[in-house]
Amino acid sequence: MVKKQRKPLTEVLKIMKNKLAFIMMATVIGMILASLISFLVLEPQYEGTAQVIVHQNPSEETTAPLADQAKTLTDTYKEIVLTPAVLEPVAQGAEKDLSYQALRDQVEVRTNDESLVLQIAVVDNSPYAASDLANQIASSFAKQVGEIYPNSQVKQVADAKTHTEKVRPKPILDILIGAGLAFLLATLWALWQAYRDKTVRSEEIVSEMGWQLIGVLPEMSQTQVRETRFKRKGRSANSDDSKRRI
């Protein structure tokens, strides 16, 4: 007789079906926690972005292709923006107390390999401070580049504007992440509990193990359990009455 092999995927789906209420409850709790953290705990962050362009005067000594020159220069300028020479004067002149490292953590420089345009983005909990810091960093960068590379000219082509739309947190994304993590953890917990449970719960397992089935105890509902208890109490009461009469 050929034994039927149970497919792992079928077993997983069966376990998930049995624990569906728990998994769904955990998912809802994860969504609620994520929304509370996103709306009440995390501080809103705003971004200000200034654009600068660097123009280098042609040099007779330069023989590299223009594309390679642009890539090298943008990488170099990106590093210069994040140096203490550029950021420390801005941090010292800021309205709130800022260290060089704290300001550096707020700054992101975005470059394009095909051009010499740099985007200096600053993230802050104030939209006005974010735009102001971005403009100050652009001005400080233009000054420092002129001293380091006399042949280079920096021009700010776009000032940072004040945007009141926050860039993070993003509640919808946070809620989806919270729901996904809660669903995953609840599913893994359900599978782990099923793996640890060594109880034989079906005749199929007995057949697969090659054991001999002696008998099966039917599962009783709560109503049947209550009726059985009531009958036992009735029999016990009748027995006591009979003994008293004797």
Automatic annotation (TrEMBL):
* InterPro entries registered for this protein in UniProt: Bact_polysacc_biosynth/exp, LPS_length_determ_N
Q: In which pathway does it act?
A: Capsule biogenesis; capsule polysaccharide biosynthesis
**Keyword Cell membrane included in the entry's annotation:** yes
The protein's superkingdom reads Bacteria
Give the stretches traversing the membrane: 20-42, 172-192
Q: How does it sit in the membrane?
A: Multi-pass membrane protein
Which residue ranges does the record annotate as region Disordered? Answer: 225-246
Q: Which residues form the Polysaccharide chain length determinant N-terminal domain?
A: 9-92
Cite a single GO MF annotation.
protein tyrosine kinase activity
Position of the signal peptide: none
UniProt family annotation: Belongs to the CpsC/CapA family.
Function (record text): Required for CpsD phosphorylation. Involved in the regulation of capsular polysaccharide biosynthesis. May be part of a complex that directs the coordinated polymerization and export to the cell surface of the capsular polysaccharide.
Q: Would you tell me the protein name for this molecule?
A: Capsular polysaccharide biosynthesis protein CpsC
